[in-house]
Amino acid sequence: MHYFEPADISIYIQGRGVILKEKSLIAYNETSGKILAYGEEAVHAAENTPDNVKIISPLYRGIIADYMAAVNLFAFLLNKAWGKRPLRKPPVAVCVPENITITGKKVIEDTLYQAGTGEVLVSLLPLEQLLEEIPGFSGNWHKVKTFISIGKDEPWGYIKEQLSEITSYAGREGIAASEIVKVFQDMYK
User: Fold this and answer.
1) What does pTM read for this prediction?
2) Among 99, 14, 27, which residue's Cα sits nearest to residue 58?
3) Helices and strands per DSSP (H, E), number in the chain
């Protein structure tokens, strides 16, 4: 079972605080395509019924990598946080990684809209900072009651994944690991 290092997703609802924190994981049956579990439960589903169960993270370094899987994941998480589907599609704010592109922002907006939200406001600020700064914002920010944070609480997983990609690429190009270490040492002298 291999998947990219999952993002951490937190949902904060004004007046209630952080309602849930989950990993961006989905377990599904490869034969039927049926989704078996989301978040931490996905890992348990794969451990308990390993035959034909695959775990994926529809987010790669916090950015949408599998659109339909991400729609399903966010629909599940939002319904879990809200308790029941609201009559109107509520606006949400989403905190995304700094390295997201304009296209990546559009994809996250579309994904969340398809998952059941109304207007999606995208922020590059971390959740805590965004919540502090909203009183100074203009526009629709004051209508938002649901905030989603996509990131990594412990970034070491992302760092290890990136270093693994670097060393794999270097190996294919005939570059020794000791040479990579030297490059890092030279960069940070």
Assistant:
1) 0.80
2) 27
3) 6, 10
